[in-house]
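To close the section, here is one more complete example, presented without commentary so you can practise reading it yourself. The ligand is xanthosine-5'-monophosphate.
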Amino acid sequence: MSMDEITLENLDAGEFIEEQCSAIAERVAGGLAINALSGGVDSSVVTMLGHRAIGSRLMTYFVDNGIMRRDEPAQVASMFEKLGVPIEIVDAREQFFSALKGLTDPEEKREAITQTFYRDIFGDLVRASGARYLLQGTILTDVEETVAGVKRQHNILSQLGIDTREQFGYTLIEPLIRLRKPGVRKVGEALGLPGELFARPPFPGPALAARVIGETTPDRIDLVREATAIVEEELVDIKAFQYLAILHEDKVTGIRDGKRDYGHQIEIRCWDSTDAKTARPTRLDYALLEKLASRITTEVKGVVSVTYNIASKPTSTIEAV
Ligand code: XMP
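Output:
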């Protein structure tokens, strides 16, 4: 446990909000800040904090990186518009796919995503807007996993020796860095976020690229996106911590219409956890697993095999990449 952690029991959400809003307003002073919204719990909470702290001097961008879930950019933008927070969608699909082209090593994929977000996209956005600060929703677990060498979280920079001011032209403000997921949800609720936002299952910054083993191509992302939509639809009522679909790199021999079909394999994972540091597979009902397999093999083109992960974290991790 980090000395700096604010545990759920010690968190007074109202006080935390007041303190963080004053701190943001003081740092940005009369200037501008940009804000990276992905629609996940952490970035949604930071968006509301920043909006409360500096109003229209905060410019919120949703980066459409091409590796988000089905309809996600439009859905997130419309949810925030309803909350009175204007969002600008940046189309960066080509930039991300070209950065990911040919990469199969998990850490290299994560590094490419980090560089594309922070050096290329946010670097350009701050230069164009004159903003000096980037507000983002890093939480304690992200820092710990990266520092421990488990995996490089897409949003961890200074802890790896990256000086964003010097290298990319802006300073990071990370108001949630002392919290874990349950604390972030409590702050989100206190900020008036709707349940569909503050209670959302976690979703990683590297998005569906964290769920494609091997090369991340638009076609392979489409496959895992379709499988993800089915898994999310079928498991939404289970109340698990997180549930996801993974596309494997290896193909396997299957049969379709009485003939050999050499096709893709999808792995389903569904996790019970409180803070993502450790997790156990949810004991899903077998009939539900069979339904998932049947839907995925009929609705997702080219998939012949579906498996369910039964290993805990550790040794597994929650995502595959
Ligand atoms: P792992 O896969 O390391 O994931 O067991 C732990 C939790 O973190 C999420 N995750 C990320 N979140 N940036 C994030 O903001 C990332 O790079 C990242 N990688 C994993 C994952 O979904 C899980 O909830």
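Once you have examined the tokens, check your reading against these statements. Residues 142, 145, 150-151, 153-155, 202, 204-206, 210, 242, 276, 313, 317-319 surround xanthosine-5'-monophosphate (CB under 6 Å). The chain has a mean pLDDT of 95.
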